[in-house]
Amino acid sequence: MIGAGAMGSATAWQLALQGKDVALIEQFGVAHNKGSSHGGTRIFRLSYRTPLYTDLAARALPDWRELESDSGEHLLEQNGQLDHGYKEAIDEIAISLDRLGRSYERMDAADAHDRWPGMNFEDHVLYSPDGGRCFADKTVSTLIRRTQELGGDVHLNTPVLSIHLDGDHAIVETESKTWWTPSLVVAAGGWVEKLVGHLFNLPELIVDAGQPAHFQPVAGLESESFWPSFLHHGANGRGGSPLEASAYGLYTPGEGFKVGTWSDRKAIDPDNRDFEISQKHLTEMKQYVAHWFPGLDLETAVATTCLFTNTPEEDFILDRRGPITVCSPCSGHGFKFVPTIGKITAELALGGKQTTPQWQLSN
Ligand SMILES: Cc1cc2nc3c(=O)[nH]c(=O)nc-3n(C[C@H](O)[C@H](O)[C@H](O)COP(=O)(O)OP(=O)(O)OC[C@H]3O[C@@H](n4cnc5c(N)ncnc54)[C@H](O)[C@@H]3O)c2cc1C
Question: pTM, whole model, 2 decimals?
């Protein structure tokens, strides 16, 4: 396994749970802040427009509970999810949830504001009680801890320098050791192209830095019950929506309400990042928050950066060729599926086939 972010750690945990001989190699430390998996929280939601991901999230629910029971940690909280925006998006989410028989409520902007007075809404609103949040850093450190307790070999601060094929084996070079293995999983997030781009036709991947910020609620709205997770579906100009892209957010205990918007998107090199906070992005974010979140105090904004790896269709890469499985559940929405991705990737690593066309490699 290369990469001890959320996905590599989940796969290592699954393989160790099944009694397999697993080594997990990570270039940095546990739950470091240079990749995509750090921070207090991530949104969990079933409310997708595409049935593929609604079904996957529904499958992930019992898998999260299994991970919690295996580790004794509380990692997923279903404190609700709000989707709002243009009608077509909200209708499609309702259809996805109907297919699975999941409950939800639809309402207009005024009723939603009455119930969650810290937020303003567009006219079409859907509340899903199944949604909520996963605790990100805690999940990654828990998966690594359990991998070790189950006998897995974890090598931190060990950059992989190169990967080559040797017939039906893969050769992995680090500074101190050469590994020769019949099954290698590459879960390298924003570094996947650098590590295996010479071996496979990966989809076009754009790696860029997201910049979410936490805000404190104003007096009277401090209770977490006012702050379910949300996704504001941008209409790219359609239907008069004021947003070009979507915005998202959720409450992180101890840090406040996180809001993510998109601005200043440009490709970056994950090995050559400045981690600087873009003041332009922060200013635009505050304009967004000023309009849509009357219950947040703009003066309390604390921004951070995080690495996004995006495919053109926002799908995942999860497929095996020869001895190498590529695992990159990315595009800004993979975390909620972590324990299930661990299972799917472990199956591939043990010889399974990928049958979901959206996740297949093209060569
Ligand atoms: C700002 C932000 C907000 C998000 N919000 C949500 C959300 O609300 N809900 C949701 O479901 N998802 C969300 N996501 C997406 C989710 O966090 C990612 O899909 C997920 O964390 C990706 O995990 P990963 O393991 O693939 O990548 P990473 O966490 O980046 O892990 C890859 C690992 O590989 C290691 N590595 C790379 N190269 C080498 C090498 N040569 N040698 C050794 N190790 C190497 C890296 O150091 C890294 O630790 C968000 C992402 C971001 C950035």
Answer: 0.97
